[in-house]
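>> received
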Amino acid sequence: MITKTTPTTTPTPPTPETLAPPGRRPRRERRVAELAARTRRIAGRLAEFSALPAETVLHDLGSTPAGLTHREAELRRERDGANAIAQDRPARWYVQLAKACRNPFILVLAVLVAVMYGQWLQVADTEPFDLKIVILGAMVLISVGLRFWQEYRSGAAADALRALVTTTTAVQRRAGRGRLPATVEIPMADVVTGDVVKLAAGDLVPADLRLLAAKDLMVSQAALSGESLPVAKADTRLATDRGEDTTRDPVEAGNLVLTGTSVTSGSATGVVVVATGADTYLGSMAGALVGERPETSFDTGVKKVSFLLIRFMMVMVPVVFLLNGLTKGDWAEAFTFAVAVAVGLTPEMLPMVVTTNLARGAVALSRRKVVVKHLNAIQNLGAMDVLCTDKTGTLTEDRIVLDRYLDVHGRPDTEVLEHAYLNSHFQTGLRNLMDQAVIDRMHEAEEVVVDARFTLVDEIPFDFARRRMSVVLRRNDLDGPAAEHLLITKGAVEEVLDRCDRVAHAGDSVELTGALRDSVLRTAEDHSRQGMRVLAVAVRTLPVDPDGTEAVRTSYGVADEAELTLIGFLAFLDPPKRDAAEALRALADNGVAVKVVTGDGELVAARVCEQVGIDPGTPVTGAEIDALDDLELLDRARTATLFAKVNPVQKARIVRALQADGHTVGFLGDGINDAAALRDADVGISVDTAVDIAKESADIILLEKDLTVLGQGVLRGRLTFGNTIKYLKLTASSNFGNVFSVLVASAFIPFQPMLALQLLVQNLLYDISQLATPWDRMDADYLRTPRTWDARGIRRFMLVLGPTSSVFDITTFALMWYVFGADSEVHQALFQSGWFVEGLLTQTLVVHMLRTRRIPFVQSRATWPVLLMTALVMGVGLWLPFSPLAGALGLQALPLAYFPWLVATLTTYCLLTQGVKRWYIRRFGEWL
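>> returned
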């Protein structure tokens, strides 16, 4: 019943300031807080429109029941702009290319290329072009090109998922004042404030609308609220509409329909637009989805590791330069050597290895019908240790099924199903989702039998005041028409029960007493508490000839819905996906905790959690979240599994609280109410059937709603990260060991221990051997736990394993100095050749020792690409001193007596490295 109310201003409880996860800037925090306040302000304004009488709303908006004139609409379109939600425009190709260059190591290499080019320009008249410039430049171009092409192609694939059609809506417009209105179809972007819009089943709601006249209107609000079932809106008439003041939430208001929702049944013949574009409830939330994306764990991790290695370089390179300049006296040569050391310290192949790893991951996932929009998301998927997921459409099938048909005592009863089927099958109006679920539950053979037994006489349509509908059927007996008609009523439990005076019991009917009524209601309420939507089914037998005039009755009305006999209940639900429990169990086995964050009620959500194997614990509701400050929310988010009845702002706040607690958070959702959380998460995951805003906010799009792909994606992400960190730790420790050896040699040897060109060639050959790293495998135990960037772990690995290799560099110095007599500048080529070969072979061979925490070649073997590439590079290293290139490189042939010493050095190095590895694992509890 609609009563006249006076609009009141209800104070809105203050929402705690948003919690910024690691890596967020204060500017981001302020923006989120401002947008949250704007959403609350718009929600309050919509609630005020809901409370006002319809005629007052029309007056305030400068409109009439007949709508606007074309001229008025044009002026408002010019004043307010298009009815469009804010969204990020795809970056142009040159912007994407510039972003691909924004990598610390790329910048370091570019600076080194510039320095080397500047050096060459000073001697360009007498010296040929320096090939080292070409080598480093090629590394930069390949790394940048790979990343740019993969992300550009993935972005194009994501754009192709958007519908390329213009959606229209029906509005009433007039040619001028005093002219009759006409219904015209216009693009949604042209809808303006004050327009009167007509809605019918299947229509998208073009803007935030205040109902003026509506009949049997059912609206799907799942995209906004997460509730899977359509919501009934109030039947309204302009003449009697006095507004409603029952809620301050515009989504729940019975006389408001909002952008982002759709009509499933019924009609609204006169609706006035109260907000368009950015001023809509959805538009206020979409503002959080444009602009610079927040940093993810991948971004912050790479940044920390990058600056760690750059700090090492800034310390070591000046020391090498000063030491060589002071001891050798040739400052120009010392500078050239220092630049070579800088190149040697830089894991210059890291951008290429990372990009190749991520690109391989994207290709592998694309075979599973997954579009990776942002390459970094693959590593974040592997680092993810908490997955927040919406319920509707992700854990559930996003459809309504008839789960149970029960007698009044809660026992299965096929008679209830048959009568419900007759009611749904014979109604002539638009069937709702529950009618279709009843029909789908009947077997085809049974449908034929039931249909043959009955003929429709009349129906009493559904309306929202009665909340029930009835059909009247005639039995088709073989020996002629039956003397009775059967009335079957289906609807809301209390509304049907109020029209009943008897209850079916043990094949008969008994009087509905007070005690029996309480028992029947408890049966219905028990199933409602399990998250089901419950309807009641009742019947009545009516005489064909009530007056004895032999005139067959063909018309029935609401008054005939009396003296009914309740026969039972129908229980509907949105069923969980068949693969959901298995997929979630696989995620848990791989160290990913799953939390359900939904706009649906806690009872429904808790039941779905139990069905898919998640312990819901004590649900946390949106109202409770609003009452928590940041630290309290962080504490609750740490232990809670289910968050129910939460709005989009609260979903994003939950994600940020988990990030602030040190987690790498993924979010899986497909609705408008998920978009902000998808954007704030370290990895946002959506599906191709999601709304456009959700897809634009996501990093990964599943072309099929297959949850098992997520588990495979997590393992692929960890494999990608493992191979990346493998290259980084191995290269950083090896390079640090080489530079440490250079420092020792420079202090005691009167000539360069290795020429700058030799150092660059050795570094290049080692980097070539590492090009196969993205094709390597990781041990199964490594893939079982989430992996994140750890700058401290990399530094520790460098400081322990680097000097280990220097031990054998120093023994090689002694070998070449004392055994082979390379103790003067005259024999420096022999000295340098000996260290060049030993350094390259130990550096390359140790890859197999360090790539696994197990015993190499016995318990864990590299893939064939890695084995072949390292063997090839070691072969080239042995060949170079004997090759025609030896003179150009400053190398010379090594005596045969050198090679037994080399074999002994390599063997001892492998044994020592294995021993250090076992100690390191026992001491620090980790390896890669």
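>> The CA atoms of residues 766 and 844 lie 6 Å apart.
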